[in-house]
Structure formats: C-alpha cells, structure tokens
Task: inverse folding
C-alpha cells in the first residue's frame, strides 16, 4: 500500500507528477486553500499533509489525540504557520525546504531595495498613467544605493546571500544583528560587522533587510520603538515574515516620514494588504514572491519529495525541523 498524501495547493506540474507516481496522492486541482475543518479532517485520512505558507496549522486544527498523519512536509523554508509543539506532542514529523530558495529570496530582497530607493514602482505608475512630462534634473530623484550601509537582521543563509549581493555587487558596507555569534569565512570576506544589539544595526543602517524567522519569538521585533531607532532617510526591506513587523506601527512611521520607505514582500495577514499601505508612494509592495521562480519552486517541491521518500522508507529525513 502506497502512503496516502494530501497536497493542500497546486504545486509545480513536474512535482505533482512525481508525487502521483510514488504515492497515493490527492491533489488540489482548484488550488483553493483548505478550511480549518478540512485540515482537521486531513489528519484523520492521510499519512502525510503537504502544506505551504498559505495554510494555517495552529494547535486548534490538530486532532485532540492521535492522528493518521505522521508527517507534515512543508513546501518552504519558513514554518511558523505550523504549531510544531502540537505536531511533536502527536509524534508528527515536520520538514521544510532549506537551501534551494536562498538565491531567489536574496535576489528579491535586492529587487525591493533597489526599487524603493530608486522609486521604480512610482516611476512606472507615473509613466503608465500618462503623467510623465519628460526628463528633468529634479524628476523623481531617489536615494543612491551603491556604497551605503546595509543592516541585515538574521545572518542565516538568506541574510548572508543578500549581504553578499549588496557588498560585492553594490559596494555596500554590511552590519548585522544575529542572536548567536556569526564569524565565518563568508562574513569575514565581506568585512561584515556583527553589532551587539538590534538597535545598533537600526541606528547605523541606510537599509535594513529582515531575514529572521517569523513566529512568536520574533513577533513585532520591528515595532514603533525600533522604527524610531532608524535613520529618517533609511529604508526597511521585509522578505521574511509579516509578523516580524508591527504593520500598523510601520504604516504610521511611513506616513509621518519617520523612515524614508519600505519594500515589502510579506504582510501581517496575507493576502490582505491594508489600504493605508497601498496609498503610500514610498513603499514597494509585492505578493510574497521571494521564492517564486520556476526553477526554485520545482526545487522546493523536489525537496519535499526527498523528505517524504526518506520518511516512508524509514531513512533519516534530511530536512526535519520537528
Ligand atoms: C518560505 O520558504 O518560507 C517562503 O516564504 C515561501 O515561499
């Protein structure tokens, strides 16, 4: 008997094909997210739940005691949408997909940084609206990026990849905040300076890019107080998780021009994006595109296949997080 799997959203076609071949797979052709009740019922009927960041798996959707499900294989590196303690209590393994989305997420962080500093979203909106009156010395002058200081919050794989691009591509100085010490060849090669506190990084940086995990430990790490620590001409970039930033405090800081702007790929209550943010010209807003390239999305799916195959063959699971 093949293990029974449920895939909660549409996945890239080559990945769905392999899943269907190797396992007894229920696909989600309509791509509609599962309701909390459907998620709870999945625990009773499937050996594996193949989840994504668009699913919510708080303790409330887990079955009270035992479940048929033995593994939740997440399509993505961040897993703060899954209550891992609830999974552990029920002997359910949780896996993620680290490594394969590092480059594309770092690329997108740089795209946001450049876009917000150089006002490219604003410029494109103006041109498409037919409101461009031609070149002029004062037209849409933005902030220079090259040579400025980038503060990285969370110097893990994606933080380092973002720093590398900024340092070697744009000659940026790198400072960073990370809870544990980071002193390796990679950070030394970019002369990246680890600062003792988050506030030190916020106060020093022209751009602050967030790369820490979401979830309770980092909820509202960036709040009204920390935003006040930033320079008034600095920009905040978030490709991590929406809950790392107090979104209302950020909107206030942007409206009052306490910081210069923000580039956001993630939001507090996705896919809802507050009208107050959409009204602001000094923000660039993207619909959670960090890992969204054909190559990376297939690679993420293949990592899930590897994790599931190892699990059901009784081998050590490569990307186990719980
Ligand atoms: C991740 O991997 O955590 C992304 O945000 C989902 O694409």
Result:
């Amino acid at each position: 008997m093949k293990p029974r799997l449920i895939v909660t959203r549409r996945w890239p076609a080559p990945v769905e094909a392999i899943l269907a071949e190797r396992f007894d797979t229920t696909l989600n052709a309509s791509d509609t997210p599962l309701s909390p009740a459907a998620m709870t019922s999945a625990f009773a009927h499937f050996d594996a739940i193949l989840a994504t960041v668009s699913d919510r798996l708080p303790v409330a959707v887990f079955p009270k005691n035992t479940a048929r499900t033995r593994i939740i294989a997440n399509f993505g590196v961040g897993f703060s949408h899954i209550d891992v303690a609830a999974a552990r209590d029920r002997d359910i393994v949780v896996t993620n997909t680290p490594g394969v989305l590092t480059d594309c997420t770092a690329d997108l962080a740089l795209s946001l940084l450049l876009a917000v500093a150089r006002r490219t979203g604003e410029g494109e909106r103006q041109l498409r609206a037919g409101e461009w009156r031609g070149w002029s010395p004062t037209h849409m002058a933005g902030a220079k990026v090259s040579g400025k200081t980038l503060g990285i919050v969370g110097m893990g794989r994606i933080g380092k990849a973002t720093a590398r691009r900024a340092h070697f591509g744009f000659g940026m100085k790198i400072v960073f905040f990370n809870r544990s010490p980071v002193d390796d060849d990679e950070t030394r090669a970019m002369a990246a300076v680890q600062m003792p506190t988050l506030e030190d990084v916020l106060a020093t940086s022209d751009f602050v890019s967030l790369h820490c995990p979401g979830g309770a430990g980092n909820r509202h790490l960036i709040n009204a107080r920390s935003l006040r620590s930033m320079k008034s001409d600095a920009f905040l970039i978030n490709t991590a998780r929406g809950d790392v930033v107090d979104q209302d405090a950020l909107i206030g800081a942007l409206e009052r021009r306490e910081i210069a702007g923000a580039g956001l790929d993630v939001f507090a209550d996705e896919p809802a994006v507050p009208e107050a943010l959409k009204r602001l010209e000094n923000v660039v807003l993207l619909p959670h595109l960090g890992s969204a390239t054909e190559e990376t999305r297939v690679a993420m799916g293949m990592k899930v296949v590897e994790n599931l195959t190892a699990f059901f063959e009784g081998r050590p699971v490569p990307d186990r997080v719980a």
Summary: The longest helix spans residues 294-312.
